[in-house]
Design brief:
With 421 residues, this protein is an alpha/beta fold. The protein has 15 helices and nine strands. The chain has a nine-stranded mixed β-sheet, sandwiched between helices. Strand 4, helix 11 and strand 5 form a beta-alpha-beta unit. The two termini are 48 Å apart.
């Protein structure tokens, strides 16, 4: 260990016959002098080594059934800002000044070929092209079939016959048949195909979203940030009650977009936080920004996991599970809620927040049904879901606002549920 090496070198030098130090022999020193010397060496040596002790490791968790490989990233950087009594270092929001922001934006544009939107699209296309041929074909067919179904689903039978040419119907049926054949032959699920586009899209945009968040100090517009802060406060409060286990799970954590908000609301120790995201690039960005802080008592830090939430095996229970602008990206809304409920301790909180509201998500679904399969559950749907599935063991504490309502304009979307006995 670098700390031990520095101490030994310094101590040996002081005791050497060639050392100019007046106490070059243990025999010449009293017990108090030896103690004072050791303390002095430690005070100088330990902070110096804080710059040396830094490495990153990835823990691989192969999923038993899917062959999935996910990486739980952590860093072994220990902060010795207070000598042996290592202090916690909390991340702080710091907005770039104009010069820094201009430089960061310029470098970002270079990385994306001059335009972030087209650069992101190119990255997505390259990721799809790199798939195995059968998976690439299945993904293309899945996109076409999903878009066609989203187009015709709101139509009446009469409107569909009037507006959709017969040849288009036949092509859609042929695509569906070929897709089902590929899925059966290669053991591909609809969830797999949904995740292909989710991972490709979020990995392609990870650098841009993380850098733009850095430029803004990782803060949204005040009215939107206040809504996220409220949700994070509920999540943190659940981790501080008498029956808490001291753990919060952030699903769809991205580049760590709510880490600062959770910390500011009182999530004191870094190792209380676990973040999971399907995109390895998003997880890399989160680790880079928020992976170094440690709990001075345990030496552990935040855990970031690159994995499919629905397939990953989490250890232990959580005081709260929070989805911040993430539930609508999941391939199976009900399955996601059921899994989240199983991860909560009794009395724990399930929190779904979207600062821009349910109407915004409906717009995303209409524009891109491949990425956003449905809207967010409304209050009545939550009640029906809970009533029809006793295994959920959830109670609705805060009902979400309806789309286009005055309350939604004021609050966005926030649903909070408690795990019951």
């Amino acid at each position: 260990h670098p700390v031990a090496v520095v101490i030994c070198v310094c101590f040996t030098t002081c005791l050497s016959p060639l050392s100019p130090h007046p106490f070059h022999s243990l025999r010449a020193m009293g017990l108090g002098e030896v103690t004072n010397l050791l303390v002095t060496i430690c005070l100088f040596a330990v902070p110096a080594t804080s710059f040396l002790v830094s490495s990153r490791r990835g823990v691989v968790h192969p999923h038993p059934s899917s062959g999935e490989t996910c990486h739980a990233f952590a860093t072994s950087t220990t902060l010795f800002s207070g000598g042996f009594g290592a202090q916690k270092s909390k991340p702080k929001a710091k907005k770039m000044n104009a010069s820094q922001a201009k430089k960061a934006q310029k470098q970002l544009l270079l990385r994306y070929g001059g335009d972030i939107a087209s650069g992101t699209s190119s990255r997505i296309a390259r990721a799809i092209d790199a798939l195995d041929p059968h998976l690439k074909e299945a993904a293309g067919l899945y996109k076409q079939v999903t878009q066609f179904d989203a187009l015709v689903s709101p139509m009446t039978e009469e409107d569909r016959k009037r507006l959709i040419p017969l040849v288009q119907e036949e092509m859609a049926n042929a695509d569906r048949a070929r897709l089902l054949s590929l899925m059966e032959d290669h053991d591909i699920s609809e969830q797999d195909l949904h995740n292909v586009y989710q991972e490709a899209t979020w990995s392609a945009s990870a650098d841009a979203k993380a850098t733009q968040a850095d430029i803004a100090g990782n803060k949204m517009k005040p009215e939107l940030q206040d809504r996220i802060t409220k949700a994070c406060r509920i999540a943190v409060d659940a981790s501080q009650c008498e029956d808490s286990v001291g753990r919060v799970l952030d699903v769809g954590c991205g580049h760590g977009s709510i880490v600062l908000s959770l910390t500011e609301e009182g999530l004191g120790n870094p190792d209380m936080y676990v973040g999971v995201d399907l995109s390895p690039e998003m997880i890399n960005a989160a680790v880079e920004r928020y992976g170094s802080e440690r709990n001075g008592r345990t030496g552990n830090g935040r855990t970031f996991i690159a994995a499919d939430f629905l397939r990953h095996d989490f250890e232990g229970e959580f005081d709260s599970v929070i989805f911040c602008s993430a539930l609508h990206d999941m391939p199976d809304c009900l399955g996601t809620i059921e899994k989240a409920a199983t991860l909560l301790r009794t009395g724990g909180k399930l929190i779904i927040i979207h600062a821009q509201g349910a109407q915004h998500v409906l717009g995303q679904h209409k524009a891109n049904p491949v990425m956003v399969k449905r809207g967010l559950p409304l209050a009545q749907e939550w009640k029906e879901m809970i009533a029809s599935d006793s295994d959920l063991k959830l109670e609705l504490d805060i009902e979400p606002a309806d789309p286009r309502s005055t309350r939604e304009e004021r609050e966005g979307y926030l649903a909070v549920l408690t795990k019951t006995l």
